[in-house]
Amino acid sequence: MHLKALTLRGFKSFASATTLRFEPGITCVVGPNGSGKSNVVDALSWVMGEQGAKSLRGGKMEDVIFAGTTGRPPLGRAEVSLTIDNSDGALPIEYAEVTITRIMFRNGGSEYQINGDTCRLLDIQELLSDSGIGREMHVIVGQGQLDSVLHADPMGRRAFIEEAAGVLKHRKRKEKALRKLDAMGANLARVQDLTDELRRQLKPLGRQAAVARRAAVIQADLRDARLRLLADDLVTLRDALRDEIADEAELKKRKDAAEAELRTALAREAELEGEVRRLAPRLQRAQQTWYELSQLAERVRGTISLADARVRSASEAPPEERRGRDPEDLEREAARIREQEAELTAALEAAEHALEDTVAHRADLERELAAEERRLKDAARAIADRREGLARLNGQVNAARGRAGSAQAEIDRLAASRDEAQERAASAQEEYEQLKAEVEGLDGADEELTGRHEEAEQALAEARAAHSTARDEATAAERRRAAVAARHEALALGLRRKDGTGALLGARDRPAGLLGPAAELLTIEPGYEIAVAAALGTAADAVAVTDPATAADAIRLLRERDAGRAAMLLGADSVGSADSVDGAGPANSAGSVGSVGSAGPADSVPAAPRHVPEQAPVREASEKTASAVLPAQGGVEPGSAARSGTDAAAHPAGRAGTATVLAAPAVADLVRGPTALLGAVRSLVQDMVVVGTLEEAEELVAAHPGTTAVTAEGDVLSVHFAHGGSAGAPSLLEVQASVDEAAAELADLAVRCEELAEAQRLAGERRTERTALVEELAERRRAAEREKSGFAQQLGRLAGQARGAAGEAERMTASAARAQEALERATEEAEELAERLLVAEEAPAEEEPDTSRRDRLAADGANARQTEMEARLQARTHEERVRALAGRADALDRAARVEREARTRAEQRRARLRYEAEVASAVAYGARQLLAHVEVSLVRADQERTAAEAAKGERERELAVERDRGRGLKGELDKLTDSVHRGEVLGAEKRLRIEQLEAKALEELGVEPAGLVSEYGPDQLVPPSPAAEGEELPEDPEHPRNRPKAYLRPEQEKRLRSAERAYQQLGKVNPLALEEFSALEERHKFLSEQLEDLKKTRADLLQVIKEVDERVEQVFTEAYRDTAREFEGVFSRLFPGGEGRLVLTDPGNMLATGVDVEARPPGKKVKRLSLLSGGERSLTAVALLVAIFKARPSPFYVMDEVEAALDDTNLQRLIRIMAELQESSQLIVITHQKRTMEVADALYGVSMQGDGVSKVISQRLR
Helices 1174-1191 and 1073-1134: crossing angle, nearest 10°? Predict the structure, then answer.
């Protein structure tokens, strides 16, 4: 066995499909660093099942997929195939050549294949484990693998030996057995607990079952007693109800007479009330007139009093008002004060003129002083300016000359910088043009990639929309299917019978001729279920039987088991005459037979199967069955039911409605079913037709009295029978039709759900494929964008450099021009300043100024300011006196005006009072005249009011008498009404009680009212009670215990109490105890058997674990001994003169011991690996791996630069050992060493060009 070929496609740097073909011997893979040599080793590890991304030198497993380069887009998947030559049969598979393939998709999905067949990762690991290639991949020594061997703990080194020895599959078998044992432990405990629990439950449940058997006997006796007492109560109530109806009729006659007399009294009372109402407005008007006149008189009297008071008030003299000073005196005093004010004003003007002269004199002195001070300052400044000017001009001359020199130096520097910036701008512009040409070449490819990506995104959007639509449709269909399934289940539950029919269908020993429910055997035309059910009546819910004998057997079975009543429809074997059912209503059909019994629960009874699958219309089958199955019915020919419309001519109504009969469908045409039932159905629906409304039914029956009309709403109408009303509970025919319809719809929906699920799956696959394509194109676009972004950044940088250099050159040029101008200005300024300095130095010096005149002017100015202050004070004093006098004169003028106005107002008030007194006198006179007329009218109004009150009082007294009489009659009528009402209530209570008793008998005991009285009434004999548990009945049928007794209520009440007491003494009864006990006993037996099986399986697993441990111990012991022996030999060859060996950490426990390495190179005494040099430690790790390789050879080994750290001497020793390994195994070596290449049988060179994709070339050396 050896590796034959390795094919890489999209794995890491191998973007294109690359195949490496290997031969037995040593194959070296060489190439520069970063070319992808180690990717070959990673591909071998990955294809053989490596699951760790870090072991493959990546961060996540998706990193193995080619990520793309600047010249190639990324790929969507990676695929590696390894072909193994298995001609020696080393692999446990019947192929001479085995190809293992692993595929990884970028969306995370992966696939494994063996020879093209999809498999699991576990299948590949188990296939390779028998060849010593385990999940640890010890046959592949990659980069850093030597360090992992050196730093491994003792258990890690043991794992290397175990993997080479093939122990992994035994450990997996043990782990699997341990997992099963753990799971089995929980199951075993659970089953043991269940078994113990069931064992504890069996004993009390057995007692409950015995109590349930006893309770069944007591319940039968209790039921019979209750039924007989109910029947007795029902008969008693019916008799009392008849008496109550007679008494109620007599009371109603008396009530009618009282009502007539009361109506007469009420009429007289209404007449009197009308008269009172007519008199009321007259009295009200009289009272209103009297009240108004009284109020008017009071108002007139008030007016007279008020007028008199006004006259007295106006006639009295007003009080003398207090007067002020005389206005003329006030005006003379004001004139005198104004003369004083004029004198003070003249004095004020004189003082102000003096002040103005003083101010002008002071201002003249200040101006002369200021002029003198300016002259002195100018003279002093001229002397200082001369001294300072000479120094400043000297400094300015020197500064101007320095600025001229600096400007010249700046001009030289700016010229040099300008030349340099121009050179840089030209260089950047050249690079910019070159790079721009390269970018323009990428635009075409980018546009094409963008177009493909947009198309892929559009396709993905369509796929997502299609998938979403398919998912929504599938969800909607599934919801609809669930709703229909629930409806079908609910309707199916409605078909379960709880009466005698259910008991009959559920009986195991039911008669052989029982066909099943008629509702299941008959099929109705859609839309006519209600009409046909009404036409068939109770026959729609009947049980189909073959003949009268079977019906009689069924009735006997119901009576024996007291299971209630059932209707039966007789099939083809029954004998009868069509005339026997003529004129019978649906409720009295020939196919319905009643029986005495009690209804038992039948919820769990399954519907009887459809024994006769043959279906045919009643009308078509009638002619066939009339001669072949059914005898002739009263001479009526087959098919006469269908021709019933032609018989209408015999009726007195004539042929007026023949067209209506022929247009209405016959009920017989709407029913299909087994031919065995068609004769009975035909007899039941003879002369019955279906019409639309009740009005059409009336017209049809009136025209054809021999026809029965059935409306679509289920109303039945004929000459002698009618049945109908509001909607009732649906019949079994309607329910069965709904069940069949729901079942058909459910089947269609199931097919539709499967179709939609498949469509959803296909849409999901398309969406996944298009998502992968969009992601791949998006990644390629992102890579292209990143590349263009890099180019754009470079273009921007170069353009910026060019613009910056050009701008700098322009700025340097402008700065040089400004510097030249500054040089010229500085030169001119220096020359001008030099001339001014020369002139200043040649000018004569000035003397110090005289200050005596300034001092004299300052003293005069101070005296002038003092004089000005005194003048201002004098002027302000005169001004205040003038202002005070001016205000006083104005006040006196205002007081004179106010006093004159007050005297004028007082005279006006006295004149107004005289006028008001005259007016008040005139008002008082007129009011007295009006009061006299009002008092006369008030007397007349009082007389009218008294007469109206008397007339109304008389009518009210008569009305009171009539009302008393009416109340008496009303009381008598109320008593009679109450009596009638009480009678009606008592009657209703008795009817309600009767209905309750009938409902109780039907609902609680399953007996119809008619059967209750006829079978359990007081006139019926009481059968003997059933035998109790353990009781033996006498064999003599004439024994009193076996003979029926006459009904006596006290005895039945005593019997009921005794049965109730016995039932209560039983305690709580579990009605399902018998069934539960049987089921629990059977379950306990089953669990006991399972418990024994689990215990046996646990023992088998423990034996398997023991055998595996023995096998692992044996295999590891042999492998360790061989490895230790080989390690000593290999170590002595790699370290001549040195000593190395393997030791066990726990020799007494070969299943858990670790493996330590002791190494002593020549010339050293240390044995610990951590104290060795790096090269010695690497060589020791190589020695351990080679020892494992030689002890348990593997078909091949892969070494990735394991000799990189070795010197020439140690390398030569390692190469000799490789040559020895070559004899039994195939070697694939990744190397840079020439000596290693020299011993190779074949060379593979791996290189990588600028596109970032690895390429391979090969060379066979031997």
Answer: 120
Q: What are phi and psi of 1094, to 5 degrees?
A: -65, -40
pLDDT at 115 over 80: yes
Gap between the terminal Cα atoms of the chain: 20
- Helix residue ranges, H only, 589-656: 618-628
Distance, in Å, from the CA atom of 1060 to the CA atom of 1081, rounded to the nearest integer, reads: 31
Strand 568-570 to 543-545 pairing: parallel
Residue 648 pLDDT: 35
pLDDT tens for residues 1149-1192? Answer: 888 888 888 888 887 766 666 667 777 777 888 888 888 888 87
Q: Whole-angstrom Cα distance, residue 766 to residue 466?
A: 9
- Domain ranges in the chain are 1-139+1201-1209+1220-1262
pLDDT at 732: 60
Given a cut of 70, whether residue 219 has pLDDT beyond it is: yes
CB 1252 within 8 A of CB 69: yes
Task: At 4, list the tokens.
Answer: 């034959």
Q: Strand 1226-1230 relative to strand 1196-1200: parallel, antiparallel, unpaired?
A: parallel
Architecture of domain 1-139+1201-1209+1220-1262: 3-Layer(aba) Sandwich (3.40)
The interaxial angle of helices 1073-1134 and 1208-1222, nearest 10 deg, is 130
Residue 114, pLDDT > 50, answer yes
Instruction: Give CA–CA dist 78/110, Å, rounded.
Output: 9
Token pair 């008669």 in the structure block, residue: 511
SS (H, E, C) 45-99: HHHCCCCCCHHHCCCCHHHHECCCCCCCCCCCEEEEEEEEECCCCCCCCCCCEEE
For the chain, the residue count is 1262
C-beta separation of 702 from 653 below 8 A:
yes
pLDDT classification of 441: cutoffs 50, 70, 90: low
Give residue 413's Cα distance to chain centre. Answer: 78
| Nearest CA among 1179, 1155, 1156 for reference residue 1168 | 1156
Tokens of 1176: 């010695």
Distance (Å, whole) CA 251 – CA 986 = 14
- 908 by Cβ neighbours in 10 Å (0-12 / 13-18 / 19+) ranks as exposed
Q: What is the pLDDT of residue 706?
A: 83
What does pLDDT average to over the chain? 76
Q: What is the pLDDT of residue 1064?
A: 76
- Paired tokens of 743: 């079942």
